[in-house]
Structures
1.
Amino acid sequence: MAKQRQKKQRQTPRSRASAAQVLLNLQASGFVVTFLVLIVAGVVILSPTLRVLAEQQQEIAGLEAALAESEQQVVALEEQRERWKDPAFVETQARERLLFVYPGDITYLVIDDGEGIEDDAGIEISTEIVGASTDWRESLLASYLVAATTSQDYQAEITKAPGRIPSPDQESTP
């Protein structure tokens, strides 16, 4: 039994040392927990500020892009203003936009140049070659014969009734 007491006495300082270690570990763990709580609190406190900072940075980038675009527009308008100071440019614009001409000039105005036709009109375009069903020579000859055999009375009808113009397919009535 004496040997057991000696073992207990020997274990007592060891057990005291291990208890001290546990307390030190707890203190260290308490320090870590306190440090982590402070970090989380800092993130919670700073996150709205950081969000506002990020939004402001995005807004600044957008405003800088708008400023660069505005500067390009200013440069383009200044170039256009310089062009309008040139008499040759002004003359060209007047001739194109306002259809001004010099005396003796002959101009042609195309009325239906196909600008009003939409590309996506819903009409299917065939990829196959289609032959014409009429002979153009016969159409030309028929047109010539109608024009050659039309009487002067046809012209008189047109002048009498200016609101009604017969089509070329209709025959003139005497």
2.
Amino acid sequence: MLVLVLGSGSFASAVNFELASNYKNLYSISKTVQGENYNLDLNRFRLQIRSQILDNLSWETQYDMEWYIGSFLRTLAFPAFKNYRPPTNFDLISPLIDTENLYARQKLYRFYLNISTPAGDVKLGRQKIPWGTGKVWNPTDPFNPIAYTSLEREERAGVDAISYEMPLSALSSLNLVYSQRPSLSTWGGRLHTHIGATDCSLLGVKNGENYMLGFDFAGQILSAGIHGEAAFTRSVMDADYAQVVIGCDYTFPNSLYCLMELYHNGQGKSNSAEYQWNRWLSGEITNLAKNYGFLGVTYELSSRIKGGSYYLYNLDDNSSFWNPFVEYSLTENASGLVGGYLVNGKSNSEFGSFSNNYYLQLRWFF
């Protein structure tokens, strides 16, 4: 379809197309939860298309072609991996090849229309709703909360939603969102404004039968950035609970960047024997314990090399997750990254229940 559209001179000249693409190769070595050693090579080509159809109407599509090779395809964990679908209303993933040596699929990562009017912008389709200010945890985001221990933490599945962004002033806006997931609909509103030198937001959400009220802010103290979120949820399944994130970050003149965050998760459990693994595996909850700490640093060793270390600590069961890495800029459009996800803790702890993961990533932008 794309070839036909671009080949139609009269139509292509009337419609403004913007094309971009990138390719990622992610090779990892680890163990499954069943104790099977494996290697997995993920290849993903992503094509991004933006088009301004009319003055007030545009659309964006991000189409992925993925193929997987490696011994992971022959493990007991692979069927669950390939059959997993994110909790979205529409299944936009289509398998293409499924053998013991190659698994390939295509999917629509993003697909939405954007309608601009003097009264605000309406976005309809598979999209990301960027709520919250937390960098490691963001409890005020009911749509795509961060899964920081994911090997591709920058990948957010998105939601099938209608989003309306209404400007209230030069520094204030109101975002209204309705999303539909299987057997679950979510209504939410977020009022964002600027007070002094601080961005802040108030929000309310009806997530199924649960109700949530929240607040977030981001600002500065001296030269350091500070941010935080707080959410109170009236839950049907759990007792009512609160979640709070507070963090700060600072970049030194020598390029050293430091980030710290503390997280209290009232929905979690202090005793690891009470962890709700089934809800975590289904994606219903993103953390198991009550209290966490995070420390992250990055440093530019040269104009091409950057090193870093992210350390996440479970304050309840004393397990930890450590992510050291080195990134090398191959060209202006390509980079390489080598690192590891190193876990520590007792076998029944949150992070100690998993195995170390070592990875190599190459990425090109076209």
3.
Amino acid sequence: MLLVESFVTTYHMTMSKGPIQREMEALLVAAFTPNHLTVTNDSATHRGHSGDDGSGESHFTVEIESSAFAGVNRVLRQRMVNKALGDLPGDRVHALAIKARTPGE
């Protein structure tokens, strides 16, 4: 893996990322200016299960750390992430696990 760093964001990039994963990362960076962002494609572990559309980009885990989540409970944080992702969850992404926290949590 190649570690990519910007002034406010650190996240891992791999050469095998698909278009949905790259779109998710871009939307989350734009919405939250995260200190840390990892979007993991879990689709291979769900191959043949419900929701697997064969695209290889149906199941993801998002780990995001941003000061935008300060004073916001876990459910609202997840709603914020889902809103930032627009039509991806439920339309082009079958399953999304979200771990949203503030710096220091």
